[in-house]
TrEMBL record:
Keywords per UniProt: Metal-binding, Oxidoreductase, Zinc
EC number in record: 1.1.1.-
InterPro entries: ADH-like_C (IPR013149), ADH-like_N (IPR013154), ADH_Zn_CS (IPR002328), GroES-like_sf (IPR011032), NAD(P)-bd_dom_sf (IPR036291)
Needed cofactors: Zn(2+)
Top EC class, one word: oxidoreductase
UniProt protein name: Zinc-dependent alcohol dehydrogenase
Transmembrane segments: none
All residue ranges annotated as the Alcohol dehydrogenase-like C-terminal domain in the record: 196-266
Annotated GO MF terms: oxidoreductase activity
Length: 391
């Protein structure tokens, strides 16, 4: 089959690779109809996450048709149309039972140990390095889906791929980002990053009853989308001082909820520093660009909540702990517990309350994935979200 593989930083290639096979009774094989490129893939593309090997198949946002199931699979049959959540979780451990699927306890105690020896698929993320299970991803024609009875959600009516694909990751992630702010009527919620994740956080905040939503980014086309689809007031951080703008918009108090939907955006010189390479990279990345996280903490109203859905690894320096502690802030974060949100969000899509397809700016063939990565990384041609179709 064809698959988009990581080669080295800033280089991906579509190659012929072996088809995936059932390895465990609980696996299914899915023929992928649609898959997308995520901001999290850019962390791999930038080369700032260790443990990617040349030839590893990328991608953790995908859906398709079940073409084979293992002997133990009960809930899926060949021909079912499914969206697959990005966390690979057992569904049985204490974390999964609490609905905290992205911290499934069923991890591989000895990273790299063959799954056969381990006796079960370790928790992890599709296409997201050998630190997170070493699983092949979904930017491919087919993928193996472990715990097929736990993760995938069946799409039984005629909803098109474009409307349901983002249940795999960014829609629940944005939703969780807003949910962690415990929004009360009348609240103001500020969202750093008007990418697809930030936009969904804003749309969710609106549905949760936020009175005012503030979008912070530097790309006018992304801010315009936030205004159009979430009614956000926009702050362009390339032109305006964000702390001052937020003060002005909130009578000096600061937003009640602050969502970081940026993360360690190495390719834009955000001032986050990754732990495993603190020498040259640190010098290069310590630019005078604002750190979204630091700004969120410093501008949040006393007693408010900072919700971190942007992804980080390692240490992030210059965290304003004094301000955080003395102003009674709450911080919540996490990789999204996608499985928890699949059905409720599918229902909202079905009744027309949410249309996630508004984020799509480009549709390409799987074969053109390398072009998609470049466009999405450099935000050219008003790129917001790239969907790849395997056909
Ligand atoms: P994206 O690259 O499309 O969007 C990021 C946006 O942040 C860009 O528009 C950029 O201009 C903006 N930005 C950069 N620095 C900023 C700053 N200082 N202030 C305000 N805005 C700034 O990426 P995306 O797909 O929207 O993903 C966003 C983040 O969410 C990534 O870090 C990704 O890894 C993370 N993510 C996390 C989860 C999770 O489960 N928690 C899931 C999916 C994605
Ligand atoms: Zn993602
Ligand atoms: Zn588990």
């Amino acid at each position: 089959m064809k698959a988009n593989v990581w080669v080295r930083p800033n280089r991906v290639e579509v190659r012929d690779v072996p088809d995936p096979q059932i390895l465990n009774d609980g696996d299914a094989i899915v023929r992928i109809t649609s898959t997308a490129i995520c901001g999290s893939d850019l962390h791999l593309y930038d080369g700032y996450l260790p443990a990617m090997l040349p030839g590893d198949i990328l991608g953790h946002e995908f859906m398709g048709e079940v073409v084979e199931v293992g002997a133990g699979v009960r809930k899926l049959t060949v021909g079912d149309r499914v969206v697959v959540p990005f966390p690979i979780s057992c569904g049985r451990c204490a974390s999964c039972q609490r609905g905290q699927f992205s911290v499934c306890e069923n991890s591989n105690p000895n990273a790299g140990m063959a799954e056969k020896l381990l006796g079960h698929p370790p928790a992890g993320i599709f296409g997201y390095s050998h630190l997170l299970g070493g699983y092949a991803g979904g930017q491919a024609e087919y993928a193996r889906v472990p715990y097929a009875d736990v993760g995938p959600v069946k799409i039984e009516d005629g909803l098109p791929d474009d409307k349901v694909l983002f249940l795999s990751d960014i829609l629940p992630t944005g939703w969780m980002g807003a949910e962690m702010c415990d929004i009360q009527p009348g609240d103001t919620v500020a969202v750093w990053g008007a990418g697809p994740v930030g936009l969904f956080a804003m749309m969710a905040a609106r549905l949760m009853g936020a009175e005012r939503i503030i979008a912070i980014d530097r790309y006018p086309y992304r801010l315009a989308k936030a205004e159009r689809h979430a009614g956000a007031v926009c702050v362009n951080y390339a032109e305006t001082s964000v702390p001052e703008a937020l003060k002005e918009l909130t009578a000096g108090r600061g937003p009640d909820g602050c969502v970081d939907a940026v993360g360690a955006e190495a390719h834009h010189g955000n001032a986050a520093i990754y732990a495993y390479d603190r020498t040259k990279q640190a010098a290069r990345m310590q630019t005078d660009r604002p750190s979204a996280l630091r700004e969120a903490v410093l501008t949040c109203r006393n007693g408010g909540t900072v919700s971190v859905i942007g992804a980080y690894t390692g240490f992030v320096d210059k965290f304003p702990m004094g301000s955080f502690m003395n102003r009674s802030l709450t911080m919540r974060s996490g990789q999204c517990h996608v499985q928890r949100y699949l059905r409720p969000l599918l229902e909202r899509i079905r009744i027309g309350e949410l249309d996630p397809s508004v984020v799509i700016s480009h549709r390409l063939r799987l074969a053109d994935a390398p072009i998609g990565y470049e466009m999405f990384k450099n935000k050219v041609d008003d790129c917001e979200k790239v969907v790849l179709s395997a056909a």
